[in-house]
Amino acid sequence: MKKKIFHYMCFLISLSVVCTFILTLTLCYPLFFEHTKQEVKDEAVYLTYVFNHNLSDPLKLLHNAHTQTRITWIDINGNILFDNSAEAAHMENHLLRPEIQSALDIGIGEAYRISTTLGSNTYYYAVKLNDGTILRLSRTNISAYDMLRGSLPILFAMMLAIYVIALLAARRMARNIIAPINAINLEHPIMNDLYEELNPMLLRLENQNEQIRQQMKKLKNQQREFTTIINNIEEGLILINHSYKILSVNFSALEILNADRKINYIDKNLFTLVNNDALYQATQSVMKGERQEFYLPMGSKTYQIIASPVTKNDKVKGAVILFVDITEKRMAEKMRQEFSANVSHELKTPLTSISGFAELLQNNMVRPADVPLFAGKIYKEAQRLINLVQDIIKVSQLDEKNSSFMKEPINLAAVCKQTVLYLNDKALKKQIKLNFSAEPGCEITAVRQLIDELVFNLIENAIKYNKPNGQVNISLKRKPTHIALSVKDTGIGISEEDLPHVFERFYRADKSRSQINVEGTGLGLAIVKHIAEYHHAQLTITSKINKGTTITIKFPLV
Questions:
Q1: Which residues contact 433 (CB under 8 A, 6 or more apart)?
Q2: Separation CA 428–CA 223 (nearest Å)
Q3: Which CATH class is domain 405-556?
Q4: Helix, strand or coil for residue 154?
Q5: How far is CA 523 from CA 49, 223, 383, in A?
Q6: Same fold, 233-324 and 405-556
Q7: What confidence score (pLDDT) does residue 500 get?
Q8: Which Gene3D superfamilies match (predicted)?
Q9: Which CATH number fits the domain 233-324, given the four candidates 3.30.420.340, 3.90.110.10, 3.30.420.240, 3.30.450.20?
Q10: 20 to 30 Å CA-CA from 291: which of 301, 440, 453, 459?
């Protein structure tokens, strides 16, 4: 701004000086010329008077005249008698000069002659004396152009001085002009008492500030919403730019990577948070535009890592890294594989028996008296096969969270009492006593079919693995938050090694139970576990070898 003010001031001042100078010269030069003419005429009058009244020695008079005017004395024939600026003898005849002719005719004459070569303007004035001779006076003035050219050094000196003054003035003016502008309150522009010319700009600034405030508020709200959303998703999420700087990371990712939440990882390198070769290699590939997907074991869990490039105009600008916990999925896959293998094995056993007995009967290799025995064995194995298939179907339905199950209010005490009555004969055959007790108000909302199955399996299991003269104690207790169903036996118990696996499908602790011949599908407790989970019930088990086992299920009160 200082430069602009300086340039404008210099331009205006220079233009003013030059115009003033030219105008002054134009107006003053004619006056100067008229003044010269008058001086020449005054001198001519004086000399004419002297010549006409003192003719004793006119040449002496002319020689002694001290003047800047050129004086020429000419006789009646045009010959030069005297010239104070040149040798008279060498000068040409002046008879035909206009001013001489005029003086001879009317007594006075004048003329102007301009020399383009010398750039001068000469004024001639001639007077006829009493003796008939001519006295001519002349003075040469420089032209207006030469006068201007001669004044240029002065003009340049003046302009230089003006430039220096203009520079100092421009600095001061710019400082005075800019000072209020520098002091503008940009947060509230319209509150500034400034130049009126700037009011439209200040108003626009105020409007822009308001727009920016609204946009910033909107961006902050969007940022908070985005942060809230990503921090509430179970999957870990990391956003990075092309320089591997972290743009965003959610709480799940920090928890997965066992990182301190108090540390701000934004703008830090990804590998200050993650130190893993597989992830490093994957990120390198992603930055080349290649999507990566792989499994990454971390501690006791397994994560599916999905890393995708973020591109703009076919250039990779960053990447999105997603951590998906697939531990349960992998375990479920493993369990399904094991379940399939176990199902194949469990189905093969009765089918092999049925096939073998049928083959003997077909080939008449059985005595007629033994046919009923073999038929009974085939029937028994077929029933075992049917029970196995039914249990497999039940487990599959529970795995799929079958929505066809209808919940209803159930008196759990009545279900337990009915099951005890149904299994009492079976218990008496093994010399086992069933004891049942229930507190009032033991009602739950559940699927009757599944609760019947759960109670039946628990009590039947306690009978199967009990000892002769043993007991099974079934109790129901009402608590403020739940109904507790407990089935306690005095049987062979379960070792600590086998205890975590008893609810797995087809699992049997063979070593500890080898002394008891147990028939079943191996899915009883697995079904119990699935039914408990379906009803959001808590399942616990405690056991000691040769002391017995206690299974407790806590049904939440709705």
A1: 427, 470, 471, 472
A2: 70
A3: alpha beta
A4: helix
A5: 161, 51, 15
A6: no
A7: 77
A8: 1.10.287.130, Histidine kinase-like ATPase, C-terminal domain (3.30.565.10), PAS domain (3.30.450.20)
A9: 3.30.450.20
A10: 301
What is 329-397's CATH number?
1.10.287.130
Contact residues for 76 (Cβ-Cβ < 8 A; gap 6+): 104, 132, 133, 134
**List of residues 6+ apart from 41 with CB closer than 8 A:** 125
CA distances from 504 to 22, 55, 338, 395, 529 (A): 115, 162, 10, 11, 9
**CATH assignment of 2-149, given 3.40.50.300, 3.30.565.10, 3.30.450.20, 1.20.1250.20?**
3.30.450.20
Nearest to 346 by CA among 395, 401, 400: 395
Helices (H) and strands (E) in the chain, counts: 13, 17
CA angle in degrees (0–180, nearest 5) for 437-513-484: 25
Instruction: Tell the residue number behind the tokens 């049917």, with chain if given.
Output: 386
